[in-house]
Amino acid sequence: MEDKKKVIFSGIQPSGNLTIGNYYGAIKNWVKLQDEYDCFYCVVDMHAITVRQEPKDLRRRTLEVLSLYVAAGVDPDKNTLFIQSHVPAHAEIAWLLNCYTYIGELSRMTQFKDKSARYGDASVSAGLFDYPALMAGDILLYNTDLVPVGIDQKQHIELTRDLAERFNNIYSPTLTIPEIYLGETGAKVMDLQEPTKKMSKSSDNPNSYILMMDPAEVIRKKISRSVTDSIGVVKYSDEQPGIKNLMTLLNCATGMSFEAMEKKYEGQGYAQFKIDVAEALIADLEPIQKRARELVEDKEQLEAIYRKGADKASAVANKTVRKMMKKIGFIPR
Ligand code: AMP
Ligand code: TRP
Predict the structure, then answer these.
(1) Which whole number is the average pLDDT over 178-192?
(2) Residues 22-70 pLDDT 10s
(3) Torsion of CA 163, 164, 166, 171, to 10 degrees
(4) Considering only CA atoms, which residue is closest to atom 14 of ligand 1?
(5) CB of 141 sitting under 6 A from ligand 2
(6) Structure pTM?
(7) Please, which pLDDT band fits residue 201 given cuts at 50, 70 and 90?
(8) What sections of the chain are H helices per DSSP?
(9) Is 189 in the pocket of ligand 1 (CB under 6 A)?
(10) Nearest C-alpha to atom 8 of ligand 1 is from which residue?
(11) Residue among 159, 146, 168, 194 nearest 324 (CA)
């Protein structure tokens, strides 16, 4: 008898251009997992509208994110790739879970605290506050075992587990309790200008991040300007957050170990090291950029991918919603 594969779910918001943080923290791990697991990878457009989006940008970015998934090696034949709003069960489960989520829990979410501080109370939507219930729904719909994300999402995954356990305790075992999956390195790629902060696509300073689609010369410039320190030794240490981050990037791009780097650059300062980091990133990203540029123009192929994905996803998701509704006490349709 064939063993049932474990299920993976993850998603990225089409709310900006993807950075190498998204790539090394999330997508690159997905590629490694696709043979071993039954994977659902989603472009979470419903999450993106928790803050205001320009309609034409949202449309373009949604297709760009999907193209980047595929271009980075996430195979649409092996995985279920889809767009969140195409599977209405996401909205349905979010409402259900809403009614089992406490305001106190949502108020403790650091992502909410950060974002609401940035936008100011008057423009913080109920959706932004409630975002973790939708995210929990995304994950729970597919009986997900593992969620590969960057470490910043840990709190949301813990809430997802709490909600699933709460539902199961109130009724009877219904929802699978998921676990976070963190890559070995790259779980937190740092800001190039302030290396104690997470690299983010929403930063105001473009020199603080590298986009997956940044051209080679831009990558070279951003790495050469990245903030380091005056110690002058390539060493993986918390006292040198800038260098530690560049070492992480070199490791993500080439697999080279930190030990090997420390040896290779001994007594050399940072100049050659920075050049090598930039060239490694370029070599890793260029083939992806080329495929993504081709694919994003091929609307027919993209449509075939997301339609097939939504059909497969809906079949699983609808079952979960029906099961939950029945236990809650709704009359079956
Ligand atoms: P977001 O861009 O917030 O939609 O994040 C999408 C995915 O990329 C999530 O799994 C994040 O944890 C991951 N991610 C985003 N930024 C970083 C970063 N700087 N380092 C590592 N992972 C990240
Ligand atoms: N909240 C995630 C982020 O900002 C994106 C996301 C939404 C997600 N739903 C998800 C990630 C489900 C994993 C699983 O990065």
Answers:
(1) 86
(2) 999 889 989 999 999 999 999 999 999 999 999 999 999 999 999 999 9
(3) 140
(4) 22
(5) no
(6) 0.93
(7) confident
(8) 20-22, 28-33, 45-48, 55-71, 89-98, 103-107, 110-119, 126-141, 154-170, 216-224, 241-254, 258-264, 271-297, 299-328
(9) yes
(10) 22
(11) 168
Distance 261 CA to ligand 2 centre (A): 33
Tokens standing for residue 141: 């719909």
pLDDT digits (tens, 9 = 90+) for 209-238: 999 999 999 999 999 999 999 999 999 999
Q: What is the CATH number of domain 206-293?
A: 1.10.240.10
| Residues carrying CATH 3.40.50.620, the chain | 7-187+299-328
User: Annotated catalytic residue: which of 6, 154, 197, 201?
Assistant: 201
Give start-end residues of each CATH 1.10.240.10 domain in the chain.
Answer: 206-293
* CATH (residue range 7-187+299-328): 3.40.50.620
User: Ligand 2 mean position to 172 CA, how many Å?
Assistant: 27
Contact 13 CB / ligand 1 (< 6 Å): yes
- Report which bound ligand comes closest to the CA of 182: 1
Which among 313, 331, 316 has a CA at the least distance from the CA of 43? 313
- Shortest-distance Cα residue to atom 18 of ligand 1: 21
Query: What per-residue confidence (pLDDT) applies to 75?
Result: 97
Q: Is 47 in the pocket of ligand 2 (CB under 6 A)?
A: yes
Supply angle C-alpha 71, 20, 273, rounded to 5. Answer: 120
Q: Which of 22, 41, 68, 185 is the best mutation target for the ligand 1 pocket, counting ligand atoms within 8 Å of the beta carbon and taking the most?
A: 22
